[in-house]
Write a structure and sequence with these properties.
236 residues; two-stranded antiparallel ribbon; 72% helix; single chain; binds protoporphyrin IX containing FE; mainly alpha; 3 helical TM bundles of succinate and fumarate reductases; 2 strands
């Protein structure tokens, strides 16, 4: 009995950890899209200045990055262990499909969380290599030398394969967010017949808007309707 109770608590604890770290990672995704909207301007300076301002935080930025890395690792750890223990407990249920009804809400996104999560892990690794640790172009803004990330992003999204991979990954991000955000609130005990439908709709709208926002960037840059690329990549 005591062992059963301990098991239950550890599973509840891991779900809560997955929910809290997931929601904290969502705050990064919110900020990241809003900051990246500067990529839609034809002037590289505002985006480069924004990235430079963040980098100027120095040790504070490194501390925040390490904290988010810890959230990321804890999120993966709790997600994987919850998934594996569920599979061990009910190996057959994963082969069955269909809607289990409220509040479990079986959807494409809810049944593919482990796969979408693993794809996002690969996405983030490639993404960091491409941008954060990618080529270090420099530019001057108001006489200050800084990294030209605008140029790097424009160069990257001139390549169709990158655009395709980003669009695919962002659809998967949307699926992960759709179930993840809703489920996080459920795991934290926020289920009530009055709030649950509203949280479900909010998670759906948030996931669609954020995925579309991220998808719009590579597509906009690839098609380059305002002819920015020539100038930015010095192709003249
Ligand atoms: C089309 C969409 C995106 C664009 C154009 C973009 C662009 C960038 C750029 C230019 C950087 C480098 C910033 C720097 O080194 O200062 C960066 C960093 C990063 N991006 Fe993205 N990003 C996109 C989507 C995403 C998504 C969806 C995620 C997460 C799921 C993500 C996660 C990260 C992370 C974790 C970093 C490192 C942040 C840091 O170390 O401070 N990005 N991104």
């Amino acid at each position: 009995m005591a062992e059963e109770k301990a098991k239950l608590w550890s599973s509840v604890g891991k779900k809560a950890l997955m929910a809290v770290t997931g929601l904290l990672l969502v705050t990064f995704v919110i900020e990241h899209l809003l900051g990246n909207l500067l990529l839609f301007t034809t002037d590289p300076d505002p985006f480069n200045k924004y990235a430079y301002t963040l980098m100027s935080l120095g040790k504070l930025l490194i501390a925040v990055e390490l904290v988010f890395l810890a959230f990321f690792i804890l999120h993966m750890y709790s997600g994987l262990t919850v998934y594996l223990s569920k599979r061990k407990a009910r190996p057959d249920s994963y082969r069955k499909s269909g809607n289990a009804g409220n509040p479990s809400k079986k959807t494409l996104s809810s049944t593919t969380m482990i796969i979408s999560g693993l794809v996002l892990l690969v996405f983030v690794a490639i993404h960091l290599k491409t941008f954060k640790f990618g080529p270090h172009y420099t530019t001057f803004v108001d006489g200050v030398e800084m990294r030209d990330l605008y140029k790097l992003v424009y160069q990257t999204f001139a390549q169709p394969l990158y655009v395709f991979w980003y669009v695919l990954s962002m659809v998967i991000l949307g699926l992960h967010l759709r179930h993840g955000v809703w489920s996080a609130f459920q795991s934290l005990g926020l289920h009530h017949h009055r709030f649950t439908p509203a949280i479900y709709t909010f998670a759906l709208i948030f996931a669609v808007v954020w995925a579309l926002g991220f998808i719009a960037m590579p597509i906009w840059i690839f098609f380059d309707p305002l002819n920015v690329r020539q100038d930015v990549l010095n192709l003249m």
